[in-house]
Each structure stands twice: as C-alpha cells, then as structure tokens.
C-alpha cells in the first residue's frame, strides 16, 4: 500500500471523526473528499491523544489510483478554513 501511495501520490485534507475500539484493535474513522466523492475510511490505529484530535482536520496522502488507500499525517493539523472548504467540506463541518 505504501508503495502505491508513493508512486501515485495525491494529497487533500481529511477530518478525524472518531477512534473505534474493538477488543485490542483501534482504528481511526477518517472522512475526506476526492473528485466530488466522499470517502469514509477506517485507518489503522488511532493517534496519540486522539480525544483532542476528534473533529479536527489533517493532511492525508492517498493513491490517485485507489483513493481508499491513505496515510494520515496527524502531526500536520489544518486550521485554514479556506483550504478546508476547498477540500470539499461544508461550513457545517467546521
């Protein structure tokens, strides 16, 4: 998956929705838009201090061939509302 993203890298902004915990597994629920399509993807693991990052926006790299393959940079928070809106989110999402 990492190789595919590196070779077909595209970037947008995602919203961290929640951390889902099942047994010993944690997964992040991520929402983002690519070419007018909404993607809601489960991403492996949850970031440290995830409670503070819920409903915040971050940079996400994805494969232009398969946008469901992603790498989220939880250290790169996006606060620019213009950029967030241009990435396909609505004012209600802010």
Provide structural commentary.
It is globular and about 35 Å long. Strands 3-2-1-4-5 form a five-stranded antiparallel beta sheet. The protein has helices spanning 2-7, 81-86, and strands spanning 9-22, 25-34, 37-44, 57-63, 70-78. With 94 residues, the chain is mainly beta. The protein starts with a helix and ends in an 8-residue tail after the last helix.
Number of helices: 2
Helix share of residues?
A: 10-25%
Instruction: List SSEs in N-to-C order.
Output: HEEEEEH
**Percent in strands:** over 45%
Q: C-alpha Rg, in Å?
A: 13 Å
The chain-level structural class is mainly beta
Short description:
By secondary structure, the protein is mainly β. It is about 15% helix and about 50% strand. It has helices at about 1-5, 80-85; strands spanning about 10-20, 25-35, 35-45, 55-65, 70-80.
Walk me through the topology.
Elements: H1 2-7, E1 9-22, E2 25-34, E3 37-44, E4 57-63, E5 70-78, H2 81-86
Antiparallel strand pairs: 1-2, 1-4, 2-3, 4-5
Offer a few descriptive terms.
5 strands, single chain, mainly beta, 13% helix, 94 residues
